[in-house]
Design a protein that fits this description.
- The chain is an alpha/beta fold.
- It has 3 domains: 90 residues, Urease, subunit C, domain 1; 114 residues, Roll (Diaminopimelate Epimerase, Chain A, domain 1), CATH 3.10.310; 326 residues, Alpha-Beta Barrel (TIM Barrel), CATH 3.20.20.140.
- Helices cover 30% and strands 19% of the residues.
- An 8-stranded parallel beta sheet has the order 6-13-14-15-16-17-18-19. A 6-stranded mixed beta sheet has the order 7-8-9-10-12-11. Strands 3-2-1-4 form a 4-stranded mixed beta sheet.
C-alpha cells in the first residue's frame, strides 16, 4: 500500500526531535549540509469534506494534490496546502464529492462507437419505441430524413420485445413493410439476436434450406422452413458480415463521440470486450494519433479453439492510453433473449419451443475446455461470458480442469454477467479465485421480466447475487455492458445497492449490498479485475489522477436520492475530459 503524506509527518517530526536530543545541545544549529526536504508543487489541488477515496486508511481526507497526472498527496487541508505553488489551481468542492474515476468492468467500446450512427429503437427510458408500429415509423422516418439511397443498408439497435406491447420480435414481414429497397437489419437490445428483412436475409444467403449454424438458430415461419427474419446468436454472423464498414474517418469520429459519452458518465477506464482484430487496430491507430482521452482496455475475441492469439508480449502493458488486457470468450446467450443456457427450463418458454427448453451453449463442452486451456496457457487474463447457470458449470469445470493440470494463467478468471450463478457455483469460484462480474443493471431494466417470464419469482430474485459473493469474500465487479444499456454508472450504483425494478418493486432484497460495496465494484474491484489495482481504483498517492466529481456524496445521500446524482466533472490522468458546466 503506498505511503501517504499525512503518514510521513509524525515519523519525520519524531526523527528531527531525536536528532536534536542527540546533538543540538552541543551544536545549537542544524548542520547546513543536511538537505531540506523538497515539497512537490501541485498542478491542481482539490479541497472538500466529501472526498471518497475508497482507501480505508484515508477515509476522512480533506484534500488531494495532483502533479503530472499522478496523485502526490492525500490528507488534511494543511497537508495538501503545503503543495500549493504560484501556479497551482485550487478547486473547492463545496457540497460536491470527489471519487475515483469509474471503471467500466465490462462493455464494448468500439461496438458502442459504431452504434452511435445507427437508428435507436430502444424502449423508454433509453428510447421511445413501445410497439411494432413505433419501430416501423422510426425506421421510415430515418430513411426519409437521411434520403438513404436504394440498396444502402439501414441498421437499427436496441429493440426489446419484452417491453413492446405485442411482446414479440419484429419479423421480416414487418421490416419488408418498411422498405423493399433497403436491406434492413435490427440488433436486439441484448446483442444476442437480430431481425432482418428479405433483402438482408438474401445478403446473408439465408433461405429455407439454410441449416442452423453451431451455436445459433434461424427462426422459421409456420411452414418450418422459411426464415421469419429473427436470427439467434451465431446465426446472426451471416448477415452481420455483410454490413457496411465505416471509413477510417467515420470510425475515428465514432471513437471520439463514444469517449465523450463514457466521460459524461464519470468513466475514466473503458473496456472493449470481445474486440476483433480490426477493432483493436482501430483503437491502436487512434492511440498513435493521440486521439484517446480515456484509457481503453481491449479483450481479444476468441471464437474457436484453433484461432491464433496475439503474441503474449502484446498483452498487459499500456502504450499511451491503450492496453490489450486479455482474451474474451462468449459461451452462451442472453437471459432476456431466452438463449442463455440454464440448468432448468425458462419460466415461460419462447413460442414454438418445448416445455423443457432451457437455452443452449454456443459451443460443445470439449471446445469450451480447449478454449479455456488455450487462453490460460497463453498466460493472459480471461473474461468468459456465461449468463446461464448450466453454462456456468461448464466454465467453472473448464477452469478447474486447467488448474488441475497446472494451467492457471495469471489467475483472476472472470465470469462475465454471471446472472444466474448459484450458491454452490460461487463456492467453487471462491476456491478457484474467479471473479463474477454482475450485470446488475438488469435488475432495473429487465427485473420484472426475469421474475414474470424468464426465470420465475425464486430464480429471478437471485439475478446478479452480489450479496452472496460478498458473504464469501469474493471480489466482484458490476457493469452495464454498453451498448446493451447506456454506460450510466449512477444507475448501476443504484441498481446494485437498491435492486428496484421498472415497476418500483424490490427484486431479491437479500441480495442488496451497501452503497460503499457497490462503489467498490466499479472502482477498486474493477481495477483489480484489470490487474490495475496498483495504479487505479482509489485515491492514493502514486496512482493516476483519475477522478469523478459528483453533485453530492453517494455515501451520505438517502438511497431514494441516488438517481438524482449528477456527474459534474470527469478527470483522467489529471486532465478534465468532461465538465457539466
Amino acid at each position: 500500500m503506498p505511503i501517504h503524506i499525512q503518514k510521513l509527518v509524525p515519523t519525520f517530526v519524531a526523527g528531527v526531535a531525536f536528532s536534536c536530543l542527540a546533538g543540538c545541545a552541543a551544536n545549537e544549529r542544524v548542520d547546513a549540509s543536511i538537505p531540506t526536504p523538497q515539497v512537490q508543487v501541485a498542478d491542481r489541488i482539490y479541497l472538500g469534506e466529501n472526498i471518497v477515496t475508497m482507501d480505508p486508511d484515508t477515509q476522512n481526507s480533506q484534500g488531494v494534490a495532483v502533479a503530472d497526472g499522478k496523485i502526490i498527496a492525500v490528507g488534511t487541508q494543511a497537508d495538501i496546502l503545503r503543495h500549493k505553488g504560484a501556479t497551482s489551481e485550487i478547486l473547492e468542492l463545496g457540497s460536491k464529492a470527489l471519487l475515483p474515476g469509474f471503471i467500466d468492468a465490462h462493455g464494448h467500446f468500439t461496438f458502442q462507437a459504431m452504434l452511435l450512427s445507427a437508428v435507436n429503437l430502444s424502449s423508454p427510458p433509453v428510447g421511445q419505441v413501445t410497439n411494432i408500429e413505433d419501430l416501423k415509423n422510426t425506421l421510415k422516418s430515418h430513411i426519409a430524413s437521411k434520403s438513404i439511397p436504394k440498396g444502402q443498408w439501414v441498421v437499427g439497435y436496441g429493440y426489446d420485445e419484452s417491453l413492446m406491447s405485442e411482446g414479440r420480435h419484429p419479423t421480416r414481414t414487418d421490416l419488408d413493410a418498411v422498405s423493399n429497397d433497403h436491406p434492413i437489419y435490427l440488433l436486439h437490445v441484448s446483442g444476442h439476436l437480430g431481425s432482418g428483412n428479405s433483402l438482408a436475409l438474401q445478403a446473408g444467403d439465408i433461405g429455407p434450406y439454410s441449416p442452423d449454424p453451431e451455436g445459433g438458430v434461424i427462426r422459421r415461419m409456420a411452414d418450418g422452413k422459411t426464415p421469419n427474419g429473427v436470427l439467434e446468436e451465431r446465426a446472426q454472423y451471416a448477415v452481420q458480415k455483410k454490413l457496411p464498414t465505416p471509413t477510417p474517418q467515420q470510425a475515428l469520429a465514432g471513437l471520439a463521440a463514444a469517449q465523450k459519452l463514457y466521460a459524461s458518465y464519470g468513466i475514466t477506464t473503458v473496456q472493449d470486450g470481445a474486440a476483433s482484430q480490426p477493432s483493436i487496430d482501430l483503437v491502436r491507430a487512434a492511440n498513435a494519433q493521440g486521439l484517446l482521452s480515456l484509457d481503453i482496455v481491449s479483450y481479444f475475441y476468441l471464437q474457436k479453439p484453433e484461432q491464433p492469439l496475439p503474441p503474449e508480449d502484446e498483452f498487459g502493458q499500456y502504450s499511451g492510453r491503450f492496453k490489450l488486457g486479455g482474451v474474451k470468450l462468449v459461451l452462451d446467450g442472453s437471459p432476456q433473449g431466452k438463449t442463455a443456457f440454464l440448468s432448468k427450463p425458462f419460466h415461460v418458454v419462447p413460442d414454438g419451443q418445448k416445455t423443457d427448453y432451457r437455452g443452449y451453449p454456443n459451443y460443445p463442452t470439449d471446445k469450451v475446455n480447449a478454449m479455456v486451456s488455450k487462453v490460460l496457457s497463453h498466460n493472459v487474463p480471461m473474461l468468459a461470458h456465461a449468463n446461464g447457470d448450466a453454462m456456468g458449470d461448464i466454465l467453472i469445470n473448464a477452469v478447474s480442469s486447467a488448474h488441475g493440470k497446472g494451467i492457471k494463467g495469471q489467475g483472476r478468471s472472470v465470469m462475465i454477467h454471471a446472472q444466474t450463478v448459484r450458491e454452490d457455483q460461487l463456492d467453487r469460484m471462491a476456491e478457484l479465485g474467479m471473479i463474477p462480474s454482475f450485470f446488475s443493471s438488469h435488475v432495473f431494466f429487465w427485473g420484472d421480466y426475469h421474475r414474470d417470464s424468464v426465470l420465475g419469482p425464486v430464480r429471478g430474485a437471485r439475478i446478479s447475487p452480489a450479496k452472496s459473493a460478498l458473504d464469501r469474500n469474493i471480489i466482484f465487479t458490476t457493469h452495464n455492458d454498453a451498448p446493451i444499456v447506456p454506460p450510466d454508472m449512477i444507475r448501476l450504483l443504484w441498481a446494485t445497492s437498491q435492486r428496484e425494478t421498472r415497476s418500483g418493486k424490490i427484486l431479491g432484497a437479500e441480495q442488496r449490498v451497501s452503497i460503499y460495496d457497490a462503489l467498490k465494484s466499479m472502482t477498486i474491484n474493477a481495477a483489480y479485475q484489470n490487474f490495475e489495482e496498483g495504479i487505479k481504483g482509489s485515491i492514493e498517492v502514486g496512482k493516476h489522477a483519475d477522478f469523478v466529481i459528483l453533485s453530492g456524496n453517494p455515501l451520505t445521500l438517502p438511497p431514494a436520492e441516488l438517481l438524482q446524482l449528477k456527474v459534474m466533472k470527469t478527470i483522467s490522468r489529471g486532465k478534465t475530459v468532461f465538465s457539466a458546466n
